[in-house]
Amino acid sequence: MHRLASARVETRGVTKKFHVVTGKALSRRAMLRGTGVALSLPWLDCMQPAFAAAATPPMRFVGVLNYLSFHTPNLFPEQAGADYTPSPYLESLRRRLDDITVISGLNHPGVRDGHASDKSFFTGAPGPGSPLFRNTVSLDQLAAERLGQETRYASLNLSTSPNHSCSWTANGVPVPPENSPARAFSRLFIDGTPAQRAAELARVKEGRSILDRVAAQAKRLERDVAAGDRQKLEQYLAGVRGLEQNLVREEGFAAEAKPDPGVPPIEDVDRKEDTARFKLLLDVARLALETDLTRIITVYFVGTSKTPSLPNATLNHHYLSHHGQDPEKLRHLATVERDALVAWGGFLDGLAAVRDGDARLLDRTINVVGAGMGNASSHDSTNLPVLVAGGRFVHGTHIAHDPASPPPLCNLWVQILGELGVAVDRFGTSDATTLPGLAVKSVSGDGA
């Protein structure tokens, strides 16, 4: 005999009673609601109706573009294959290297345009530096066009700068990005008018958590659902509270005068904390995936002047990227770039800690971080740094292509689109539907 419990949850303004454990059919769009606030729920097992045919678990995509690239001698291992010695940057990701594939040697044919190459990273369109350049659709927007109707938001485009987007429509128009973690959080997780959302964020800054307004409903739901769902719900609510605290802390730092580093500034003094902003945007992205509000996300890290590992230093990321092999510049650049990868690694840790049915959310999310330049110091757009994590790929290797005759990077985009369920024969400058060396598991991975 199966135990039956019940819970009352509000869905689109209507309170419904659901049976849990066996016969429960909790709406996928159910929310926890309080006065002026609503929180989407993470995917729970009880949202799959009892005895219903198991649906194929959806795959997600998160693409991260680093405008100023990475100093590749610090990123690429010296050896190819699975038995490589981690590079200095990969050391900071050591705990996740079994979930990451390092890919070197790739580039986009016809893209040799320095900083302008970022426009083509997710599209493959040639000649982005030309005055007559017109971009093509980016892989995230192609995926959103085919899959976006399955979620509340077809895609989410985030950036540390409001003026830089890495997402492009079918007409070659950049998708306006959201650069404020607070606004992104408000848009995704706080119900109501813009004025009500602003008031709710003000309450958060005063130390009054959104969770306080939905606590009673959350407790009832935690009591009535099965143990596995209870653990997911607890993890999700802890993540929401942690993000609230981080948003408040970021606001506090922005208002404080920065300490005097005791040395002349490297170049322009800039008070932006964009590595911290990048991390917060990734936190928002993780919660959006966990609640299935969207399955397609892009995040653009445009550079920073402040970085966590050197809190008392004022840096200029662009200036450092033109290092000319200067040891002092390279030392500071390594700190900035490593901190960005640490933030990305923490994002992967968060995906690995969340269960999605019989696998980790990381196993159901294809993650890519890369850049449109292989050498920012010389503006060279070959031998691009690319890391792929999660999904069904067989990881733990360094796939080293010959930079003199590599397959197009768009072959990777075609393979990723196929994994997402968007089968295409060609995308951009692709000449095949898979990337040599990037194998796929026959069964979705399951690990810790």
Question: How would you sum up this structure, described in words?
Answer:
- By secondary structure, this protein is an alpha/beta fold.
- It is globular, with a radius of gyration of 22 Å.
- Helix content is 31%, strand content 15%.
- The protein has helices spanning 88-91, 139-147, 181-189, 194-205, 210-224, 227-255, 274-290, 317-321, 327-353, 410-420; strands at 5-11, 14-20, 31-34, 37-40, 60-66, 100-106, 156-159, 296-301, 355-356, 359-360, 365-370, 384-390, 398-400.
- A hairpin with a 2-residue loop joins strand 9 and strand 10 (359-360).
- The longest helix is centred in the middle third of the chain and has 29 residues, at 227-255.
- Helix 6 (227-255) runs antiparallel to helix 7 (274-290).
- The protein has one domain: Alkaline Phosphatase, subunit A.
- The chain has 10 helices and 13 strands.
- The strands form 4 sheets. Strands 7-8-5-11-12-6-13 form a 7-stranded mixed sheet, sandwiched between helices.
- The two termini are 33 Å apart.
- Residues 1-24, 253-270 and 444-448 have low confidence and may be disordered.
CATH architecture: 3-Layer(aba) Sandwich
Structural class label: alpha/beta
Q: Helical residue percent?
A: 25-40%
Apparent shape: globular
Portion of residues in beta strands equals 5-15%
The number of E-state strands comes to: 13
Radius of gyration: 22 Å
Largest sheet at a glance? 7 strands, mixed
Distance between the termini: 33 Å
Low-confidence stretches: 1-24, 253-270, 444-448
